[in-house]
Fold this protein.
Amino acid sequence: MLSFITEKQSCWDRLKAEKRPIFIYGMGDGALKIMSVFNEKGITVSGVFASDDFVRGHSFEGFRVHKLSEVEEMVGDFAVVLAFAAGYQEIVDKIHSIASRHTLYVPDVPVVGRGLFTYEYCLENAERIRAVYDSLADDYSRKVYANILNFKISGKIEYLSAVTTPKAEIYKKIIRPTLNETYVDLGAYNGDTIRELLEFTHGLYHSIYALEPDKKNFKKLAKSVDGMNHVYAFNAAAWCVDTELPFAAKAGRQSAITGSSDTLIAARSVDSILGRRPSTIIKMDVEGFEREAIWGASQNIAHYSPKLMVSLYHRNEDIFELPLLIKSLNPNYKLYIRHQLYIPAWETNLYAVP
C-alpha cells in the first residue's frame, strides 16, 4: 500500500546499532530532544561539538563543547548526529561537507507535540498517507512527499537534497501571484513574508492582513509595514475562533501557544477578520497550530478558494492531516508539496491552488 516508502529502519534503530562513538553536533532545544530519546532508547552520547564560532570553552548537558577539528584529532572514526536546523546555503554546505567525511544522522523530532516518526507510525496512518499521495497534482509532488517521509524515518539527508526547490520557482510556477492580491499572512513574524510576496508583485497588492502573536516580533512587523496603504496588522494568534490563548514568547520565529503560560494573547480567526470579504492568498506558518488556523479560515477556503501556502512540518501528523483537511473543505483544490532549502525537513510546505 505504501510502496513509495522504502526506508523501514528508523534513524533511532540505526543509531542504537552504531558501533562507533556518537557525537552530537549542536546545542539547544533540538539537542535536548534528541538526548531525551537517546536516554529512552539506551543510546550513548560520546560528546558534543559546535561550529567554531560557538565554541568558547563552555559545556552542554555535562559535556565539554568541542570544535569538530578537536573531535577529529581525538577520535579516528565517529558518527555525527545533527541537532539543529539549517536554512542557509553556507551552513547546509558545511553539513554536507561533514557528511562526506563522517556518517551523518539527522533524527526527526517534532517541533510541537510528542512521538517519533517511524515506519510503524506510517503503517498506522497508511490510509491517510496514501490518500494524500494519490491526491497530489503532479509527479514531482509525489516524489517530494515520498522523499520527505523516507527522510523522516531514516534521517538520511540525501532525501532532502534530491527534492529541494528554490522559493522563486514555487512562486513563479505554483502560486503565480497577481498584482491585485488580498494576502493573509498568518505568522507574519517581522514582515519578511510580506516583503517576499511583494518582490513577485512589484510591490503591488489589493490589501494585506497580517497576524503575529509575539509582541517583539509584532513591533518589527508594524515598523516594516508602516506607511503602507491597506495593510492591517494584528498582534494576535491565528485560531479557529476569536478568543484568548496562553502564549510563550521567545522573541523569535518559534514563539508559541502553550498550555502552561500565564500570559494571555488575543487569538483571531481569518473568517472573523475578513467577514464576508474574500482573500486570494493565505500563508500559514503558525508553529503547529495550522489545523486550527485552517478551521478559522474554513468559510473563506470553501467559498473563495484562495491560494494556500501551509507549513507541513511542525507536528508529525501535519504531513497527512492538513492536506486531507483542506481537500475536505474544498475538493476543487490542486495540491502541491515542495521542500525549500532546509535541514531537517522544515520548510516542507503544502501549496493548494484552485
